[in-house]
Amino acid sequence: MKKETLRIPLVQTIASSLFLLIFIILTNNAFGQTTVYIDPSYTGSTQNGTMANPYKSWNSVSWVNGNTYLQKAGTTFNTTGSLTVSSKSNITIGAYGTGNKPKVISSGASTSKVIDITSSSNIQVNGLEVASTSGMVAAVIISGTGAGNNLINNCILRDVQWGIRILTTSAGNRILNCEVFNTQDDGIYIKDTPDIEIGYCNIYNVNLKYFVNPDQSYSPGDNIQIASTNSHNFYIHHNTLDHSTTGNKFCFIAWGNNYTGILEYNTMIGHSNKSVTCMYLSPTTGTVTARYNSFINGNYGVYSYVSNFQVYYNEFINSRIAISVLNNYHLLAENNVFYNSTANNINSLSGSTVVSKNNIFYLSGSAKAYSTSGSLTSNNNVFNVQSAGFINGHSTLAAWRSASGQDMNSMVANPNFVNPTAHNFSLQPNSPCINAGYLCGYNQDYFGNNVPLGSSSDIGYHEFATSTNNQAPIIQSQSFSVPENSPNGTVVGQVIASDPDAGQTITYSITGGNTGSAFNINSSTGLLSVANTQNLNYEGNPTFNLQVTVIDNLNSSSSATVIVNLQDVNENPIINDQGFNINENISNGSAVGTIAATDPDNGQQLTYSITSGNTNNTFALNASSGALTVNNNQLANHETNNQFQLTVKVQDNGAGMLSDYGTITVNILDLNEAPVIANQSFSVNSTASNGTNVGQVTASDPDDNQALSYSIISGNNNNAFLLNSNTGIISVNNSVALSSSSSFSLSVRVTDNGTPQLSSNCIVTITVTSSGNSAPVINAQSFSVN
Question: Which among 402, 414, 617, 785 would be 20 to 30 A from 508, CA to CA?
């Protein structure tokens, strides 16, 4: 598909914006106004807002009229609040240094805005990436009385409810060169402003609430919405409005009344299957002009309530209905290409007036060129085929002419496009459309070619240049640079080419050197962009030598080398989840394993640290090598802690000191441990009979569910005692032996049933006591007497 943006205006606009920023900074400095620097990565103790000693936080800034406030490129400022500029004027908020756009990321309340410009004028926000992690209302909002002549330029705005909101009755606000995406509702929302300019913006992935609830009452998001447009004028140009990823609503909508506007060089991508219309224009008594645009895949290309709607040199591709004109409204459609609409190309209701000239209707299936109920004036058009009812119910051009008197200079013919399936609707030299059109008074076609280039204008959106001495286009070797981590869609630069022949169309293509399809070039504008960010790696391939070929519409071509140098950007180190096994009761200082991490950048030094999960400092981690060792083995016990899950952070030493986190699982393996038994003592009466219970030997085992067995290994003289191997109960086995000693010292062993079987010994002392009352003893005795 050809891009509608003109190369020269894009370069001029970007150059003008850069000149304006430089001029403002130089002018401010010349009149004693101050530039304040913010660097969130600054580590110094002195902070005064100078470049040498910048502020670390935007919270340290005092807003002063006329000042410039710049955040260092490649840094991120995280906040829970907003950057609020209230009742100020002539302030610039931007970036300094080289690298990626500095980021302002807020996690504030969902009702807040990241950058809040209230009742302030001539405020510029340049070159920032602004986002929210909590779904805040807007990345940037401009509101309040006197909030005029503000500029949002060259910014990335994402992950909010609305990317940009402008709510003011003040004039002169502009949005240029911005990328807006991942919005829950509208990409850009404008309300009550008397005028607005939005140009060179890329707005996509809007209305994400559609994935929560597809009902339009809940998810009504548009790429751009201009509301309450009474006496309002808008200029919408050179934008890409892509609504193809979600359903409902519109790429562009203006509603109110009495508004006027120009929409040119825009690409609007809808979704016919999800009821996404490219453009909706609510009732207005004013004039709206749509020219040099691409309307693609719309449920409606345009749905219009405009009193004077002028539509010329546009392409309508794969719409259900290309243009619908409502009751009592007017359409002038000239020099457009209508390609593969599935229902009607131009549809109108009663009371409407439609003028259609110099249009190409490329029909397929049962699609109709016209289904009009009001007045239709039609001539000098081309229809590629005739089919049932294709012109207001008529199946042939002759029948339609006879019934209506219209299209007397129209024809049924193949327009001979260059490549219609690739959406290249330029005319080939043998096209019947050349010089067959009506002179409508326009001075250039869709591609910027002068009109007319022949005896009359051509039919369609391309004015064909004929030349008997055609010269090849001119392209020189060029070079660009882009950060290696640039996302898909990032603009690298614009390849410049020219053609010596007036009115020629140049088509660009990459014909060599595009390893991994890393880049894409817009065939019409030469705009070079990132197409496959995964193949951008400074360490692996720092330079691409692209061969770019340009071809004019008479098939003369030239080629040149376009060098793209990748800028080395610090990238996050990478640590994956890992696991190790150690035996329980391992000694302190023992190695667990070495944690592995990598860094995409060459020569980076990684630092490791444990951030959570290390209960009682069980483990120690070497910060430099990632070696993990046992530090406190008391908790390394399978029965109490059979697993540790450590969160380990790895951090590089590059710009921004980026980091990554991984979960390191340490499993404590169960080992069989010896049972535990202590020395014990019992007593037994010397007169105890066999089988008398003496006591129970007790033991324990550190391992769960172990079975213990007991045995006497020594000291059991004359088998005086019996030890139950299962219960540990000691009983009298030989009562006669009790009288042989006053005590016994039994060596007792307890054995577990683990693998391998382990045992421990103890001394069990049994004291033999006498009976309670013994009979008196008397021996034979003799005496003598006189």
Answer: 414
